[in-house]
Amino acid sequence: MASPAPLVLIPSRLAATRLPDKPLADIGGEPMIVHVWRRAVEADIGDVVVATDSDRVADAISQVGGRAVLTRTDHPSGSDRIFEALQICDPDRTHQIIVNLQGDLPTLDPASIKACLVPLEDSQVDIATLGAVIRDEAEINNPNVVKIIGSPLSDTRLRGLYFTRATAPHGEGPLYHHIGIYAYRRAALERFVALPPSYLERREKLEQLRAIEDGMRIDAMIVDTVPLGVDTPHDLTLARQSLA
User: Fold this and answer.
1) Cα–Cα nearest to 11, from 90, 97, 73
2) What percent of the chain has pLDDT over 90?
């Protein structure tokens, strides 16, 4: 009997300090969260649900025929939000692979969502994610660009050993830009959200380090394109130009 398809959950919090009402920002006549939902549907890997703390976001998704669930407003992270949504959507524990897709990636290539699942074909991998070779010199020393430090398993896959805002590793060779999409085994997600924030997570302000410090294995597929994350009005302008 075939395993159930993955469940794609998109956390979407309405409050944002740098870009108010970010999920509802208009891009080409549709809210940004709808663009992300469409990319996830186009990936065609399983059911897609938006997990939000806002009736307005839920209504925007419902209007295009999608599904949204309302979650608490006080979640400290998107991982906590999708975990609550998982209990609502799948109380019978049907889905064993959960994809956490950020709600501010409107230019994401659906093929990248599919690629994120590949490392989980290896039973030793707890969490899968994505990376891309840094080709823009300006990104190398930018602390807002998170880097993956890992051991290559092939030309397109790394075993993640660390994630950092610093420029690393030292020496000759490529640097990898981390793309914040995660595919969890359900047991790994349950384990992750039960842990307190870790020392390195708090220091680097990178949630995935909690999993690394607890001994979980994170592998990354290397893809060709980095989606534009929309955090500021300038990013929004770029996203509108890209999708025009």
Assistant:
1) 73
2) 90
